[in-house]
Write a structure and sequence with these properties.
single chain; alpha/beta; GMP Synthetase, Chain A, domain 3; 2 domains; seven-stranded mixed β-sheet; five-stranded parallel β-sheet
């Protein structure tokens, strides 16, 4: 499959970017011509950031699954669409061609309809990382149901909150899931959540782990029973460009998750355009995104971006360190992966095991590396470059959010320049601005401020489900006529952007603004440090002091000598003003299951608020919080 809109040179990037800013409607209309539409649009864009209201391709009719599946069948029907690698390497992997995936999506779409699911209904999907998760997502989109995927590891209370917020009628789950050495009882957790959600009509259960489960008659049915004697043909529901495609929950400052809403046409085009260009995807390459489909990265760069581009996407059920820390490299070798897209937190974790897990792993198939989820520190960037890419693979450092639908700022692999720890340049259609606290735009390069976007792109969120005012207040009310990302940012002399962390993660130390990501980057340069997290705490003289939580590669190095070495490293990299006032050595950090460090918890501990740190049940390892509290300096 060819991509006429793929940018292949720096000159072409500047040309496309210029056109996308000067005449965005003509630009995106041209991109949209490369997709299948049941009816073309009447108007490319209507927008108002005050309300906010954004509509792309008004009047157009389509179904995203026709673009992800049907249009590929004639030419790519026998090409692998999904390669699935199980948690246990001893279990057989599975490959689904585009024809097979299309048949299974249609079959399950018919099963959903037979269970009463209609266009516009909300379907919660709570499954492990198996092909049936992707099939369930696409089957919902096929019939116009709105999918809301919840990561297969959230607690019953977290699920209940989401079910109630989205007014979910239907659930698709598994008996259980395998994740590393753990068996997660998904159906049991759903049953607990449903004690407070009696409005749910049906639960469809896929058998994965074969652990005993309780099936409630009249409500619970088995997936394998529902797809028996069901046709593998299902006409795609006609959807309006602005019909809801999915709701995805993301953490909110209030503690209550926000249901970010994405719609059909704009999201499809943005996921595809960014996938093809950032990763410079070429036909028949194998794209391995290590994220979970429970997060936006999995939606956009395991399912919708790759499949709409006719790519082969690799799904992995397990974790990077099971059964050992060589698993990513084994998968890359086994399937001859071309593109590897993973998180800095995974890279730093694997760094701590050294290069031994890389022995006898052939990584020569790799052509492009990527990072996602947080800014990558320089040490991890160089380790990734040298040991995984062997200095031959461009690294795309992608900045984006659940709310943006796809990548916003990133180098394009091998086309635009990269710079360690910098996301670099905006994609065509993205108009970033830096503003000060009063919302005044900061002109020129060599500047820093709060990162905003001043013009809509196709993948922008449309609302937060059931609470449009929350959407307005969170993203559009802080600065007039701007989308506020919530991130601080630097722009260097060449116009490259570097994300410095959430604005509430910017410290004010003796009148100096210091990004926590900047301090963490410096601490992580110390040879004995695996990972760190920095927060502020009240300081009598400075206003805010700097509290660092640090994981060492060797816990025996927990000495004043190591502490002083870290202080010297920070002083050398940033300056004495950025030296942490307190360094607490810890064995782990409180992280969500997607790898995000919960700095809110660390901040409260540093401030001495031991009793009011909030819910820790959704953390990967809640026990680490008690250890940190007990070791507070």
């Amino acid at each position: 499959m060819s991509y006429p809109y793929q940018i292949r040179s720096l000159e072409q990037y500047h040309h496309q970017y210029k056109q996308s800013i000067e005449d965005p409607e003509t630009f995106w209309s041209g991109i949209a011509e490369n997709f299948y539409w049941q009816k073309k649009w009447d108007k490319v864009l209507n927008w108002n950031f005050t309300e906010p209201s954004v509509k792309w391709f008004s009047g157009a009719k389509l179904n995203i699954t026709e673009n992800c599946l049907d249009r590929h069948l004639d030419i790519l029907g026998d090409q692998p669409a999904i390669i699935w690698e199980p948690n246990n390497p001893a279990e057989q992997n599975r490959i689904l061609t585009y024809k097979e995936l299309h048949q299974r999506v249609c079959r399950f779409a018919n099963a959903l309809k037979n269970n009463g699911v209609k266009k516009g209904d909300r379907v919660c999907i709570y499954m492990g990382m198996i092909p049936e998760l992707a099939i369930a997502v696409l089957a919902c989109a096929r019939i116009g149901a709105i999918h809301s995927v919840v990561f297969g590891g959230f607690s019953a209370q977290s699920i209940s909150d989401r079910l109630q917020d989205a007014k979910v009628d239907y659930i698709v789950t598994c008996d259980g899931a395998f994740r590393g050495a753990k068996d997660i009882p998904l159906k049991k957790i759903i049953d607990e959540a449903l004690l407070s959600c009696a409005f749910v009509k049906k639960v469809i259960v896929y058998e994965r782990t074969k652990i005993p489960v309780v099936m409630q008659p009249g409500r619970d049915v088995w997936w394998h029973d529902e797809i028996k004697n069901v046709s593998d043909e299902c006409a795609a529901e006609t959807m309006d460009a602005e019909d809801m495609l999915f709701i995805l929950y993301t953490s909110g400052s209030t503690g209550k998750p926000k249901g970010v809403v994405h719609t059909c046409a704009g999201y499809m085009i943005w996921a595809n355009y960014t996938f093809v260009n950032v990763f410079q995807y070429q036909s028949k390459q194998i794209h391995f995104c290590t994220a979970d489909i429970g997060w936006i990265t999995g939606h956009s760069y395991i399912i919708y971006g790759p499949l709409s581009a006719g790519a082969t996407t690799l799904m992995f059920e397990g974790i990077p360190t099971y059964p050992d820390a060589g698993r990513f490299w084994e998968i890359t070798d086994k399937h001859k992966v071309d593109i590897l897209y993973t998180a800095p937190t995974a890279i730093r974790s694997l760094m701590s095991y050294g290069t031994q897990p890389l022995q006898n792993k052939d990584l020569s198939s790799l052509k492009i590396l990527g990072t996602v989820g947080e800014p990558i520190n320089e040490e991890a960037w160089h380790w990734y470059d040298e040991n995984i890419g062997h200095k031959k693979c461009p690294i795309v450092d992608t900045w984006w959010q659940t709310e943006t639908g796809g990548i916003m700022i990133s180098n394009l692999a091998g086309v635009t320049p990269s710079k360690p720890s910098y996301a670099t340049l905006p994609l065509p259609g993205v108009q970033p601005v830096l503003v000060d606290e009063k919302g005044n735009e900061i002109e020129g390069n060599d500047a820093s401020g709060n990162l905003c976007i001043k013009f809509p792109w196709p993948g922008i969120l449309r609302t937060t489900y059931g609470d449009h005012e929350r959407c307005r207040l969170n993203y559009f009310a802080t600065y007039n006529n701007l989308y506020f990302t919530g991130d601080g940012c630097l722009r260097d002399a060449d116009g490259n952007y570097r994300i410095t962390g959430r604005v509430d993660d910017v410290l004010n130390v003796s009148g100096h603004r210091i990004g926590t990501a900047e301090v963490e980057n410096a601490i992580n340069m110390h040879s004995g440090v695996v990972e760190s997290a920095v927060v502020g705490f009240p300081h009598d003289i400075k206003g805010q002091g700097i509290y660092a939580y640090v994981i060492l590669s060797n816990s025996a190095d927990n000495t004043d000598t190591t502490r002083n070495g870290i202080l010297q490293t920070v002083t050398k990299v940033i300056g004495a003003i950025a030296k942490p006032d307190k360094i607490q050595f810890v064995s782990g950090l409180p992280k969500t299951r997607s790898g995000k460090i919960m700095r809110r918890i660390l901040r409260k501990i540093a401030e001495g608020e031991m009793q009011n740190i909030g819910d820790t049940t959704t953390l990967l390892d809640p026990a680490v919080v008690e250890e940190i509290k007990n070791g507070k300096l």
